[in-house]
Amino acid sequence: GRVAAWVARAPAIVESFHNDEPFLGDRSWRFRLRALARITTQHIAISDAVKTRLVRDVGLAADSVTVVRYGVPDERGTLDRDAARAQLGVGADERVVGFVGRLTQQKRVDVLVDAAPLLRDATCVLVGDGELRPDLEARAARLGAGVRFAGHVPDAPAVMRAFDVFCLPSDWEGLGLVLVEAMLRGVPVAGATSGAIPEVLDHGRAGALFPPRDPAALAGVVNELLDDPARRAEMSRAGRAFALAAFAPERMLAETLQVYGDALGRSRRSRS
Fold it and tell me: Which of 99, 127, 162, 183 could share a disulfide with 84, CB 3.0–4.6 Å?
């Protein structure tokens, strides 16, 4: 796309990076991205974590990368807690730790499955599908863990309100949009200290954090939340307030337009 824009003599070229992909630091990708940077007016990264990767591992100039976080509409949906639980087949009094997403290597749902036997009087509900589902089901069966596989749900964010805690144990995330969706719905969240997850959780002020790939640490953090309703309520309020402020669609629109305007301005000055 950038080469085509350059051939067509586009006055400015802006490239957006939407994930903290492991391959960004590979030699072949560094070469390609640095070459493309020579014809790119400005880059947009969706988080500080993605910008750090682009500057540190790819070698882009720090001032050529602007962070513009996603804007997420405040949509609570039509399902209340009881309706969401009924849709997932969860009892009204069950303590539920939930996950929503693809069952892929990146998401490290195996860490949550391994932690399930360590959770006190709680059920894990996994919403989503993917190539690792058969392996995860077999793993949960071997462990005798309390894990339910809900599969694909048409409006997955709506059923988050069934959860007492939402958990994201990913190895990397360019942002972790599902965390924002959970926070906007008032669901307390816990996530691994990987990629952009800490900044999306305001470095522990809007959600709980645990080390990646550590089932015991995950279980310890989640158990603390499950056993402390007052802390969950406070985290629910803090998470929603932070999500409304940091991920407002109006902010994303204004900041994106600013990047485009600045890029066009620099392009015009360079030609004059």
Answer: 162
Q: Which two tokens stand for residue 144?
A: 């005798």
Q: Are the C-beta atoms of 145 and 123 separated by less than 8 Å?
A: no
Measured over the CA atoms of residue 136, residue 141, residue 145 and residue 147, the dihedral's sign is positive
Going by pLDDT thresholds of 50, 70 and 90, the confidence category of residue 271 is low
Reduced to 3 states (helix: H, G, I; strand: E, B; else coil), residue 23 is helix
pLDDT at residue 145, rounded to an integer: 82
Instruction: Say what the pLDDT of residue 272 is.
Output: 57
Provide the 10 A C-beta neighbour count for residue 25.
13
Task: Give the closest residue to 21 by CA, choosing from 41, 61, 64, 50.
Answer: 50
| Segment 180-211, tens digit of pLDDT | 999 999 999 999 999 999 999 999 999 999 99
For tokens 């998470």, what's the residue? 239
Q: What share of the chain is helix, strand, coil (3-state, %, to 5)?
A: 50, 15, 35
Range in 24-28, 110-114, 159-163, 240-244 with the lowest mean pLDDT: 24-28
Q: What counts of helices (H) and strands (E) characterise the chain?
A: 11, 9
- Residue 245 identity: A
Residue identified by tokens 């719905």 is: 185
Helix (H, G, I), strand (E, B) or coil at 270: helix
Decide if 20 contacts 172 (C-beta within 8 A).
yes
Question: What DSSP character marks residue 107?
Answer: G
Helix/strand/coil for 117: helix
* Residues contacting 81, CB < 8 A, separation 6+: 161, 162
Question: Cα separation of 53 and 44, whole Å?
Answer: 13
Q: What's the rounded Cα separation, in Å, for the pair 123 and 162?
A: 12
Residue range 63-74: average pLDDT?
Answer: 96
